[in-house]
Structures are given as structure tokens and as C-alpha cells.
């Protein structure tokens, strides 16, 4: 649910905006003074801010300037002032839109949706998606190196994570302990391949409901291990 901050000193207008936005599925926070609005905007994460210009305390221009200095949150300015100079000043400070009162609440909702969609496109286009593996309640985020089992995050050592990820990335392939040791502990490593068995045991304790009857990492007797899907 997208979160909207309304900074508006006319309570009847703020309530009307809030009602229409909530009916459209948004979460809404209302502040009626400039100081409260500035504090909320700076100390919380909102998806969009609807900002009146004429406010008790800090005015909308100053709030916009301070917010824009540290955040890219879309800002829609609202004012009874129809002078072009105010629109130019507001947009120049970084506001994304400017609506003059009176306005249709449905128009405000439409503009909110449009700016949220535009902001999402802009941010997602420059953001690489995390590489995720999801198998029957097991979620592995390869990019962030995090693991969840049925929504609960589990902590893994570096080699435990590498071994789990390697097996999950190559499902239904049977690997010998020697192959796993070479792949995870480096081909040039010299050591006891029994460390593979120890790590498999620890991984099972974290991801399996019953480690004695594993549903993810299967032992192929006399050969090695396989990740089942």
C-alpha cells in the first residue's frame, strides 16, 4: 500500500482528500501545520506528499525545499493562489505538480496515481532486480545473500550459503562430495571433504522441517547429494 502525506491546515479539505485517497487504497497521514508536516516528511518514508502552500509555521515552499534537498519523493503542491509566479516558484523548488483550489478530489486522486506510476517507472528502470531462487517455501536472495524458510529469515555462514545456493541453482543434479568441495572450497583447496558432510548437516537443520527426512537436499547413497524440486 502506497503511503501518502497530506500537509493541509484546512481540516475540511484535508479530510476530503484523505477520504478519497483511502477509498482508492492508499494509506494516508494528515498534518495540519507546517512544522508537523516538515517533521513527518523528513523523518518518515512516504511515497508521495500533498503539500499546501499557506501553512501555519513553516510554509509549503520551505517544506518543499528541505524535503527535496534529501529526498526524491513526488510532491504535489496545492494552493488557492493562482498566480503563475507561485507555480513557477513551487516547481522551481522541485515540486512535481501544482493544483489550484478549488479542485475535484477525483482529479487529485488521478494525479496522485499518475505521479506514483511515473516515479515507480523511473526508479525501477535504474534498479537491478535481486536474483531470487524460490522453491517450496525456501527463498534465497543471491544478491543480498539472505535466506528465508516459510517467511522466517535464517542465518547462514558464508560457505553454508554458497553450498546451498550452488545446489539450489542446479536442481536434480547429483554432485559427489569431491565435486562440491572443489566448487565451494576452490579447486586448488586441500582439505578434508568431510567438511561437505558437516555443512550439509548444518544447512538441513536450518531449512528442513525434519532434517532426518530432508525434502530439499537429498542424499544419494554412495554418490553424493542432490537438491530436489
H and E string? EHEHEHEHEHEEEEHEHHEE
What is the number of helices?
A: 8
Unreliable stretches, pLDDT < 50, 5 or more residues? none
Calculate the terminal CA-CA distance, rounded to whole Å: 33 Å
Q: Please tell me the overall pLDDT.
A: 88
Outline:
With 229 residues, the protein is of the alpha/beta class.
Task: Explain this structure.
The longest helix has 21 residues, at 105-125. The protein has eight helices and twelve strands. α1 packs across α5, α2 packs parallel to α3 (60-68) and α6 (158-169) crosses α8 (194-207). The model has no long low-confidence stretch (mean pLDDT 88). Strands 2-1-3-4-5 form a five-stranded parallel beta sheet, with helices on both faces. A four-stranded antiparallel beta sheet has the order 6-7-8-9, with helices on one face. Strands 10-12-11 form a three-stranded antiparallel beta sheet. Helix content is 42%, strand content 21%. It has helices at 11-23, 34-43, 60-68, 84-92, 105-125, 158-169, 177-184, 194-207, and strands spanning 3-7, 27-31, 48-52, 75-79, 97-100, 132-135, 138-141, 146-149, 152-154, 175-176, 217-220, 224-227. By secondary structure, it is α/β, with parallel strands linked by helices. The radius of gyration is 27 Å and the shape is elongated.
Features:
alpha/beta, about 230 residues, 8 helices, 4-stranded antiparallel sheet
Q: What's the layout of helices and strands?
A:
Blueprint: E1 3-7, H1 11-23, E2 27-31, H2 34-43, E3 48-52, H3 60-68, E4 75-79, H4 84-92, E5 97-100, H5 105-125, E6 132-135, E7 138-141, E8 146-149, E9 152-154, H6 158-169, E10 175-176, H7 177-184, H8 194-207, E11 217-220, E12 224-227
Helix pairs in contact: 1-5, 2-3, 6-8
Amino acid at each position: 500500500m502506497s503511503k501518502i502525506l497530506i500537509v493541509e491546515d484546512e481540516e475540511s479539505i484535508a479530510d476530503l482528500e484523505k477520504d478519497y485517497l483511502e477509498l482508492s487504497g492508499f494509506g494516508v497521514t494528515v498534518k495540519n501545520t507546517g512544522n508537523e508536516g516538515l517533521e513527518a516528511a523528513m523523518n518518515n518514508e512516504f511515497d508521495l506528499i500533498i503539500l499546501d502552500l499557506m501553512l501555519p509555521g513553516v510554509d509549503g515552499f520551505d517544506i518543499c525545499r528541505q524535503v527535496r534537498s534529501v529526498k526524491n519523493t513526488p510532491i504535489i503542491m496545492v494552493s488557492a493562489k493562482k498566480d503563475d509566479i507561485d507555480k513557477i516558484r513551487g516547481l522551481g523548488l522541485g515540486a512535481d505538480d501544482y493544483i489550484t483550489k478549488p479542485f475535484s478530489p477525483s482529479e487529485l486522486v488521478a494525479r496522485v496515481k499518475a505521479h506514483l506510476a511515473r516515479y515507480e517507472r523511473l526508479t525501477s528502470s535504474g534498479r537491478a532486480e535481486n536474483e531470487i531462487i524460490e522453491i517450496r517455501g525456501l527463498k534465497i536472495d543471491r544478491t543480498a545473500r539472505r535466506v528465508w524458510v516459510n517467511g522466517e529469515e535464517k542465518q547462514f555462514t558464508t560457505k553454508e550459503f554458497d553450498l546451498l545456493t550452488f545446489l539450489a541453482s542446479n536442481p536434480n543434479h547429483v554432485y559427489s562430495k569431491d565435486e562440491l568441495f572443489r566448487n565451494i572450497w576452490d579447486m586448488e583447496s586441500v582439505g578434508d571433504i568431510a567438511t561437505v558432510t558437516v555443512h550439509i548437516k548444518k544447512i538441513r537443520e536450518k531449512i528442513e522441517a525434519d532434517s532426518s527426512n530432508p525434502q530439499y537436499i537429498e542424499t544419494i547413497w554412495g554418490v553424493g547429494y542432490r537438491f530436489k524440486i
